[in-house]
Specification:
Length: 176
């Protein structure tokens, strides 16, 4: 069976700082019509920084959509024309103050393809040296250094619930 939906019309119904929302009228494979609300989001990176002692560097910050503090791995969106690895190096330094001597792509994934086109590239950062944070004006972050095995336990017991961190733990544990 043909599974492709054909776009009949599309309209940007919201354009913001980090997302655009598009309303599409589509023709389904069986000929019926439907609507799709699509969030357009720039591609992003997420960085699992692991030092020579198998400690990982997490960022703790308040996230308004969930009205809570959350532990995450350093992450950020890719600027137009920017290479994902360059973005990973930049975001790691900005958020944690760490500079990576090595940066390796672990994997990539679509965050939620049912409604957004956002793709996140996961990097492993190693050979770390300490520098200084360079946060955006609206960023407030605490850096946490945690042994990888404790990080993995925190993922397993749902202390860490950020999807990027959970996937990074899996990607790294699988590659060890």
């Amino acid at each position: 069976m043909e599974l492709i939906e054909k776009t009949v019309t599309k309209e940007t119904i919201y354009s913001g700082k980090i997302i655009d929302v598009e309303l599409q009228n589509v023709l389904l494979p069986d000929g019926r019509k439907s609507k799709r609300e699509i969030v357009r989001h720039s591609q992003a990176v997420a960085v699992l920084a692991v030092d020579e002692n198998e400690n990982v560097y997490l960022v703790e910050q308040f996230r308004k959509p969930i009205d809570s503090l959350i532990l995450e791995i350093p992450a950020g969106h890719i600027e137009e024309g920017e290479d994902p690895e360059y973005t990973a190096v930049r975001e790691l330094r900005e958020e944690t103050g760490m500079v990576a001597g090595e940066m390796r792509l672990l994997n990539k994934y679509y965050t939620s393809p049912g409604f957004t086109d956002e793709m996140i590239y996961f990097f492993l950062a190693g050979k770390l040296t300490q520098s200084s944070q360079s946060l955006d004006r609206d960023e407030f972050i605490n850096v946490k250094k945690i042994p990888f095995d404790d990080f993995l336990k925190m993922v397993k017991d749902n202390t860490i619930t950020d999807g990027k961190a959970v996937l990074a733990a899996y990607f790294y544990a699988s590659a060890r």
